[in-house]
Design a protein that fits this description.
Length: about 130
């Protein structure tokens, strides 16, 4: 069982930055690929980015590539999402998720993840 708790959301002006954190419980954190997803009102949950369980591979949605960076600290059981150059269209509830040793072909699919956090709101004002 893995429990995930996100933090770091808030209100920021366009062009600003935020760093989201996702703290995981459980002894097997390093065996899980960690993904970030977001959901805006009236829209489906969409993939933002992910880091492989090994920490060697990174995946990003085209809409955030070059602006967002994912990292993980297995010693702290935490994954981060650094968001720079934020845009109003980045406004959403952001969720972290854990998927056991997901492959590259599965890492962008919400249905492949085993555990989800409760989400944290990010609002970008224009």
């Amino acid at each position: 069982q893995v429990q995930l708790v996100e933090s770091g959301g808030g209100l920021v002006q366009a062009g600003g930055s935020l760093r989201l954190s996702c703290a995981a419980s459980g002894p097997t954190f390093s065996s899980y690929a960690m993904g970030w997803f977001r959901q805006a009102p009236g829209k489906e949950r969409e993939f933002v980015g992910a880091i492989s369980w090994s920490g060697n591979s990174f995946y990003y949605a085209d809409s955030v590539k070059g602006r967002f960076t994912i990292s993980r600290d297995n010693a702290k059981n935490t994954v981060y999402l650094q968001m720079n150059s934020l845009k109003p269209e980045d406004t959403a509830v952001y969720y972290c998720a854990a998927g056991y040793r997901l492959s590259a072909t599965m890492i962008g699919r919400p249905s492949e993840y085993d555990y989800w956090g409760q989400g944290t709101q990010v609002t970008v004002s224009s």
